[in-house]
User: Fold these one by one.
Assistant:
Number 1:
Amino acid sequence: RVWLTVQPRRSTESVAEAAIRDGRLSRLQLVRSLEFSTERPRMRCCQPPAARHCRRTATAALRPLLRSCTTKARLKASLNLPKTSFSLHAKVAETEPRLARQLAVDHYERQAAQRGGADAFVLHDGPPYANGDLHMGHFLNKALKDIINRAALLAGHRVHFRPGWDCHGLPIEMKAIQAGEAESLSPLALRARAAECAREAVAAQRESFVRWGVLGDWEAPYTTMAPEYEAAQLGVLQAMLRRGLLFRGERPVHWSPASRTALAEAELEYADRHVSTAAHVAFPLLEGPPAAAAAADFDPFDGGSALEGAAVVVWTTTPWTIPANQAVCVREDLTYAVVEASDVQPSQLPSEPALPAAAEVEERVRAQGEVVRAAKAALKEGRGSKAEVEAGVAALLRLKSELQSGKPELQPGDSPPNLNASPLPHGARLVVAASLVDALSEAVGTPLVVAATLPGAALIGRHCAHPLSARPVPVLHAEHVTDDAGTGLVHTAPGHGPEDFAVGVAHGLAAACPVDEKGCFTAATEEAAGFAGESVLDDGNEAVLTALREGGSLLAAARHEHRYPYDWRSKTPVIFRTTPQWFVRLGDLRGEALAALHAVEMRPPAGRARLEAFVRGRTEWCLSRQRSWGVPLPAFYHVETGEALLTEETVEHVASLVSTHGSDCWWRLSEAELLPPRMRHEAASWRKGGDTLDVWFDSGASWAAVLSPDRCPPADLYLEGSDQHRGWFQSSLLTYAGAGGGRGGGGGGAG
């Protein structure tokens, strides 16, 4: 309270000035007193009422003095309010990165330091690919992991979450190769570019993950291209060698002509509507020995004479493999029919379609573009479906291809232009499964009459002439032959299919593979020499069909829509190609892998059946890749004999070099430096190989590099999408079991 005595005949202003001058009243007290004057009087007088001035008059008189003796700063200092560093304004551009780092980095480091003695919760991060910007899939993945980690924090655990990146593989290598430089770059130059691309992607993705506020050890993430990681990965390879699980052999493997490398099953995706040219091809039967008919135990009057001059008919969706044919397979327990072309005039096959004018095609492209835009708009508004958009885009691409090539794009069931089948003469005899006679008649466009029936056993042991060279090829039994589709007789090329290869091994057939790494024909076989240099997926396939037609062996050709494997990176079709590769014997691991899986809880439970099905369905794992950017497969080959050298000793020595110098040392150092010390005197006799390890082996070995006992406890959780049942889940399980983990001797704890 401030008391002012107002003397008679003296103004209120002079009284206040005198009080301030005498020290009885400060300017601040005066200000505070007057600020409350709007509610109740603050100026109380000791004089009689007659001598008092009214409150309003006193306040008005003191207002000039108030203005002269106060400042905004002094007024602000007089307010007794809470103080905080929290800004009145959001300043999102400055505040959000700081708060995100606190959530993602500082919070993780603080909980790790303060909860050193608490039970650890380990969520092992499946490494995303270090290529490109983040998308909603990354966000969903990391958001789910962050929710789980923070729930573990609330439960009192110490969270261990070390993010990682998968840095090797074809996409990064292709990004590093500039247009036209693929052939001129040395492996080391290419690897330097690829490593830089990977580092840039890791830095950009890491910054985004931190900005999202994802809790984790972002100051020390793991990458599959780190020397210590690569050395641990080679340690897993060494453990598998110790158990005798690795071998080198020639097998038909999925091969990507676009990427020029072998692919594992996990690197494939299947196109359900791939269109191939399917062909019915005749293989004329050669005169068979009498013993074959007797052994077949069938009536020569009924079927034996009917086979004279007949030809067996095969059906294939890969006519380009005909030059590699080594046999025709049948099923001994199926019934086959010998049919004759009737005297009815055969139906005319469609001639080459007339080419539409360019202006007409352009108009169709424009109209189809409008259809696609409308479908996308409808999908965005929730009225359409993704299938409609995909169908529209496919139709648009076909029209654009037609516009560029000047040729119409054919649909399933259409006959390819210039490949009209050979006319089937009256009385021509063909051998086909009895249940598929009508299907063959429809395909060739000619009525067929059954002349005789015979068991498949009657055909086994005979020979037929190769349609491109008249070379004798045997007729053999095979369990994979069925009469569900085709003709019931299977064209067999051991160099271009696993089932064909198995037949070839059983009967000693050559695994001929007249196709190079680019997917072009070579002169490796007599039949393929005329097509050398042509792509088997393009001109080479059409050239084979043309040769078959000119030789009178092509009975029918039509577009066929079916499911077909594609390279998941280049999005292009793959082929089967027999090449020397390094494999893991998964048959020897199956029991251990499944046993290790029993100790793992899987959610949802259906995931267990899916993963077990993948494990049971594989017999071998192709580890070698014909690329430069990756962890080297440290094999040596004898310069004279080609004998392979890959032992525990050689792998251990290379792993020690990699841990110190990185995997570039495989390309930088000489054979004398890469071989173990006791073998250096033999360096002139050996050359180092150029293959790298499958990238799924890279990421699958993360349990050994990241979850080793000296680093952290075993993982409590692996969390990824269901596509990883055939990918990272499976490769982690197989490498763990292969290194002995499934028997309790593998160092990590992926389970």
Number 2:
Amino acid sequence: YKQVMGLTKFKEIVTNQLEDYNSMTTSGKMNLVLFNAALEHVARIARILKLPFGNALLVGVGGSGRQSLAKLACHICDYTLFQVTMTATYGIWTDPGWKTDLMQVMRIAGIKNEPVVFLISDTQIKDEQFVEDINNILNNGEVPNLFPTEEYQAVIEACMQDARNAGKTGPTAIFNFFIERCKKNIHMVIALSPIGDSFRNRLRMFPSLVNCTTIDWFHPWPTEALQSVASVFLDDVVLDPEDTKNNAQLQKSIVEVCVDMQERVHNLSGKYLRALRRHNYVTPTSYLELIKTFQKLFQKSRDKVGEEKARYVNGLNKLAETEEQVGKMQAHLKSLQPGLIKAKEDVKVAIANITESKKEVDAQRVVISGEEKIATEKANAAKAIEDKCTSELAVAMPALNKALGALKVLKQKDLTELKSFKTVSDGVKMSMEGLCYMFERKPDMVAPEPGKPKVKDFWGPAKKHLLGDTKLLDKILNYDKENMKESIIKKVSTLKAKPGYNPEKITKSSKPAGIVCTWVLAMHTFYFVNKNVLPLKESLKEAQAEVSVLMKQLNEKKAQLQKVENELAQLQKQFEEVKQKEADLVQQAQETSDRLARARDLIAGLSVMKDGWSIKAKELDIAFKNVVGDVIVSSGVMAYLGVFTIDYRNECVSAWKNLLKEKSVPSSENYKLHVTMGEPVELQHWRVMKLPNDDFSADNAIIVTKSTRYALCIDPEGQANNWIKNLEAKNKMKVLKQSDSNFAKEIPMCVQFGTPVLVEAVQESLD
């Protein structure tokens, strides 16, 4: 051992070991408050486990910390911890079962040679055979006939080498070697409750529970322990969020009240036993239940009262806002009147302006309509002339277009090739004669034979001046056909009269010459057609000029009309805006008037309730402050007083209220559990479900429904039984007895599916 200098240092070491234990375990983490008494128990158990053949008998009521402190001491000693896992089928020879668990513990201790702590509590002892086997382990280190033959042989083989090293040979010696190891390494820690006859009977029947163990009594927690536990668990509960100093004072006061509750109920239980011969055990579990219930109910109750108070305060605020809005709406309605009058005047002015503008627009439309009709007639006449010109020109245009099309196919080299001919036919000459006429080329005077008179020759000038011109084709294609001279046409007419001047015949001699002949004849035809069309064209020109002037004037007047119409549209738009503004003002006035009427009706209807709301809001404000005291008293009633009759309850509650007054903890003067924790609608529903109509029964119903633990109802008249059956009938509640054959199967099924269970006729022990 190393000496620990002071209790503070020891507490620090044990706290570190507890944190180390919680970090290593994946389930079953322990949230322990290490007060001085707990530290003493840890030190005592650890010293017992370190002793050779050290076994401990931990005697104390449930919830006193026997198993938790034993686990912590085991971890400090760095021993292996073993506990049985109870199931519905757990038995002596089942697998897993009691015998298999014992063999597993003995293998760890005897084969692995590791110290192991076998921790078992009285709630895990399903059969007295368990206690007999524990008695044998404590006395001899073994359980007779525990290992079957195969397991026995396996143990012998596993320990053979270590036994030989220790000088042990033979199966019996090796098994004894194994047993010695088990006796040395197995440390039994048995947690038993002194309540009831079973504790006395077991100590009397199995003396090794006393002779071979060191007894550690877990007495009721001292005041220091109660204060430490309450301080730790209530440290996170904010009792007054607005005042930190008051919050700390309230927490301190509540801790003192919790301690007083535990001690007072413990003393009251003695008085209760003496008066009525009824036992009531006040255990640390009851104290933890008190703290857990307070943690659970405090914030819920504060939120509930706060929400209810907020509803009334909000209603009063809404009434005040409505009254204020009524005044504003009246002022607003009054302010809308001048705007309405002005809007009506603006509408009248807009209507007058629109009427005047519309007259002007209509007059201009009549004038323009007449002029548009005249212009349309002129345009139709010009179109008729244009159509006539087009139809007459259509006579000459096909031939001309055909000729021009042929010319486009013709290439300059074809004309150059024609120029290179030494001798040409008369047809080609006549074709060139026509070409010379068109371009006003004079012929050469040539004598065909010496001594004969000279004749006109067009071939020479044609070769020299026309066929040699590289731009001849362009000139032909772009010839000014509109302005041909009459003298040219007369010459072409003379040529046309000659029998040989025929394009088809000339084409046989020369295709280019034939094309030129076709063009000349087409131009001749076009001249005469165009000559007839020229007067029409002049008329068309004059008509188009007149139409152009008329259309220009018409467009100007249309523009003026459009301008006036735009002005009219703008006036119309302004009129619509003014009219909409008037309609909006009228609608606003109507809506304001309607809202004003509804607000007045609302105020008139709620004014009767206003006083009641104000009183209720003040009451809830007081109740909100009293939540701390009311909830701690309610938690005490639910954790401790369920077993007591009404007189004892009233005595205890009265004492707690006086204590709250002394500690300056606010609480209600006329406190009742079912008023503080219950809902009027819910209570009424319970009474419909056959709950007796008295405060004591209502308080009992609150304890049953609000407590964090399952309820054990002392119900000699069957009132609770009837109420619970009626209440849970809609949830298909199962009603069972421990004597039912399917009891062990039904309970897990109900837990799995969330089905309510009522166990009737519960005896002193409950499986």
Number 3:
Amino acid sequence: PRPARPRPPRPSSACAAASAMSDPTDTGLNSTSDIRTVVVVGVIAVVAIDLLFELFRYLVPGIYELRRYIASLDVRDFNGNPIPAPEVTSKWPLMWLKAVYKLHERDLRETEDLDTIMFLVSLKFGAIIFSVLTFLLLTILAPIYATGSNKNLPYNNPQYVQGIDIISLSNLPQDDPRIYATVAFDFVTAFVVAFALSMGYKKYAQYRARYFASANPANYAVLLEKIPIEFDSVKEIATLFEMIWPKTLAEVHMVYYTPEVDKEKKEYDKCVKERDYIEYQLSQEADQSLARKAFDLKRKEIYHVRQVELKKREEQYTTGNAFIVFKDKITASTAVQTQLWFRNREFQIQNAPEPSGINWAGMSTNHAVAPLLRVFVALFLFLMLTLWAFIITFTQGLANIRQLSTVSGFQWTSFLLDLPSAMITFIELFAPALLLMLINALIPIIMRALVSIQRLVSLNQIDRRTRNYSFAFYVMTSFFFVTVSGSIITQIQFILDGGDFFTLVAQTVPTQAKFMMTFIASQAAITFPLLLIQLPRILYRPFTRIICGHKTPRQRYNLNKFMSMFPYYKFYALASCHALIALVYSTMAPLICAFITVYMILAYFCMKYCLVFCYFHPSSGGGSHFRGFFQHMYIALYIKTGTMIALFTITTQYVPAFLELLLLPCLIASNVFIWYR
């Protein structure tokens, strides 16, 4: 520790408040002990949640071994093959880690779909990237920062730093030549990330080629959208495709708008469920009234089946979509790359989704309504961003409550300082991060609802657009709003005293890494272990058992399958956003790389167990989410470079800013080369 030195006399009035804001006797997020507290609490949370997981895994094996349960029912995929199920893991504590570790990628290729494999590849490459950066930055750049002189400034100087800020960019004066080490490591960081992404994209291309070469029904078909009215019939479309690709057409299936048919199908399903339960009751006791009721329900089922067939023959309205099935995969692949019509907005053709991944409701949406829905979604997102801006500002006020209570106009918050010190530490350290984590959990749900009302023809398209919306929203709120509002609140007294706004905020941006570390640690210690527990499914079971009973095989099957589809869109967006935050702050505060490395490793093991043992996907997107992850990582590099250029420019360090500017064309060139090679 630094030897104690005499404190300078404090000025009065506003300057005294400003001095108090930087007083090292204050605890809160300005001391190294707080980061140790975050680490210790995070470890305790992980251990406690793992103990609960071990208990539930022993008591409720149906949730944690869902694949084995489904395989025992002889459920088949769309090719008629049995559902693959891994071996049951040992019930001894932590043995699931051994089972997950032994599952190599070559083994997963035989049992898992490409979505699962590419998601785990994304996390694996993320862990590798940040492990390399952690070693390089903490062994070379952090010691360079530690030799800076801002830690020796007076306490009431806005550039004074302490605690873990000593190993950050904030410890270097503006004219210090050691800043060029930051620029050099920005280039190193960009190279490491781009090289790893190129390796990952190469692997993705290889897997994707195997996927298109497989005997998947979707590889033999294409989806035709926005069919002109003169071709809106099976005969006309078949004639057109036979002219272009003779003797290769197998079938043409028009997609019709059939609300009455859907209504009859729902009534049929309702009757089947009721009869299923009554027959279970009959197996327990012979009752003439129950037998009569079961017979009546069977008659209703037959009636609804006949109604479905009759209403299919009635006049129906086409949705402007059709599925074209070819006799071979090569023709289908060629058709996707062909422009069929002289008007680009008509006869749009794309790869057909897998049979169980079709969004029939989206196909029924009118083309004319689609632009209005997009406008509604844009307005709703703007209102959400406005609301989240106020919430984020409130959380940053909590994170800096000691500094805020000394600012004129905010002294009313000083009553919080009368609380016990442990409570104040919780409010400053954990409350903002936990609050941000809770409100962020709502974002994918809201985005999914907004995307579902749009005209998208496959569930995979819905997932990809939800992922993109969630990622953009996370970046705006968890990165931009947090960084800007936290920097303003930290320097608010100096700003009110007439200091240069942009310079003060730019100098404080690196210090916001402390909050980001706490936020990432909270996500790693809570989100992924809780996913391992499958808490919503655990809570759902006793509630529905009381109401429904779940006596029949159908009811037990539906109970175990509740929330059994993995939300790729949510966790891709979360991982990409946290990787962006870590990349932006990696050379400003190198310690954050250690936090994101632990985050990626925990995510990899927890997600791998859940995907292999606890979740079941009837359809696959062919690993297409990885393309979005690839672009999100490059967006992170662009934002990192833009942030460094802005910081250096605002603080009048034009040479480092120019050098950072030279990095942008290199990033763009590598992005284009890897994407289109």
Number 4:
Amino acid sequence: MAMKLVTAAAMAGVAFGMTATPQRSDAAALASKKSAEAQTQPNIVTVMIDDLGWNDVGWHDEKFATPTMSSLAETGVVLERFYTAPTCTPSRSQFMTGRYNIRNGMQDSVLHSTEPRGVPLNEEFLSTKLQTSGYRTVAIGKWHMGMHQSSYLPLSRGFDRHYGIYTGGGSHTGHFSVSQSFTVRHQADAQIWQGYNIWEDGVPSEDNYGKTHSTHLYSSKAAEFVDLFETEDDDTPFFMYLAYQAVHDPIEVGDEKYVSETTCSSITSPPGNKDDSGIDWDNRQILCGMVAEIDDGVKNLVLKLKELDEWDNTFMLVFSDNGGVGVHGSKNLPLRGEKADYWEGGVRVPAFVTGGFTEGALAQAGVSPYSNTDMVHITDLHTTILNVAGYKPESTAEAKPLDGVSHLSQWIAGGSSVDGVEAARSEMLVNINSALFGGSGAIHVGDYKMIVNPEPSESRIYAKTRKALVAKQGILDQEDFQQILTYVHAEVLGTATKYIFNIAKNEFETEDDDCTDAEACSNLYDNEDFADVREMMEEKWGQWKLEAAPSTFMWADDGPLADPALFGGMWDSWRDGDNTPKAQYFGMSVLDADKFEGMTAMLHHSTDLAVSMGSAMAATGGSGSFGMMAVALTVFGAAIGMVSYRAGKRSGGSSTYESLA
């Protein structure tokens, strides 16, 4: 196979947006330019690791077994100030849209299994943009951006191929997901639903019925798709979104050797009796093994790309979606906090840029691999990738403005620590929750960070509010609902707490006040020496708050209508394109008033007819009651046959209506 040659000059041209000076006729120059662009468009591989904490990688904790990722990081750019949202869905939404979640109502909570919600369909995903740029696209692993309608699924949002789960998680080896609990009105007992979760190109995968760990399935499928793309057309670039389900719980490895035969086995709890870290050290060994399995999968993917002469033309990003969870064995220290928090440990995570494309561009610029301390937001990856791909919107008037900024030229130039190189961003919105979740959040302006309610406890607010809604049978007016939220917020959050830290001097957000420089060890919010900083941060907070769209979170739950048992035992979309639950019949509710009155008149007429026919049958010795029932049912059945047909056909021809919720 002929190797695709991409020179260092060509890579630098892509990186810095340079174009060659025309030397021939306009037509010939244009043809040559298009040919050069096709040859220099690199493959793009993004590896997202679920719940990977700050110290869950080898370059932050030498006991963690990540030889491949550590080596790749050493040949590229390590992003030491990379920020995400505090939880899964919000981070994925920002990566795919390139926009802050306040723009589209995704600022609150993760998606729940039976919740009819997703990233709004008027948002154009990164995958769709890359498709229009000539890329083949594949999504592998965890989705968690909407599944109640098929229009929210990967194959409808810019991906040519898909393998993985739609839900937010599940058993790594049993391949099933479990819903949140649901209480049907007027019933005392809560219910949960369970179903298989692996799909491949819209069809349930046979892998559901095996025991292979999700990490090994996803890694194997990634290499398989690279092979397939090479066979189909090795001149067309591809975009791979590889979103590992690990190290999200349950904490389990696919092969014990990744613990026992690696440095993971040497992990122990700190000496002494006192340990207030909140870390489960037994789980940390296992979580380390889960990371080692991912590292092995990344190694096999890189080897496959090199085998097919694709590595030198591949741009790769590896990053976590949010901070780690201590009880799962994750360690965010020395950063404060964990997943779901606005402390640094909840939103500042491991990330690096690598790939042969990156190595070549750095070499061409005369820059050695390095650690970058510039502030980078997950939306920036979206915009940077578009820069790498040479994407141009078909209509700039229709394109939504992006919050992400491209860091490509800064990364290749060595970052803002190099004289003459300016950082790509100086301010950043981490998030601002809506009033439904207490208006918590965090922002950065320059060296300063402001936090409102650093531990927003979204999951507790969600659980307590749902419990109150159950007690009200799910039916209440606005005043009742406001009272519930006020009570829940008071119990969970108390009085709003505000913090301002100088992250450049106090990146661990300490408050011990035991130093001569207040910026290095304290919360500055109530410090009058920094009143001007507080005023600036509050003003910026207010600006972003005013720009926020209403939350898409509606406390809605379809419960049993989404039961996998209705859909062949699989977690599948359970609403039609018109947003009507598939597991629902309408009866006469589909009729307007005129049609309803017409049917009523017809039914009265058929009843009179049945009575008269029944009397005649009785006079001749027939069964009057049977005759009357038969005729009435026949006429009634004809009258509503069209209604029943319309409802029963909603699943696209499949007979999934035998069990109705």
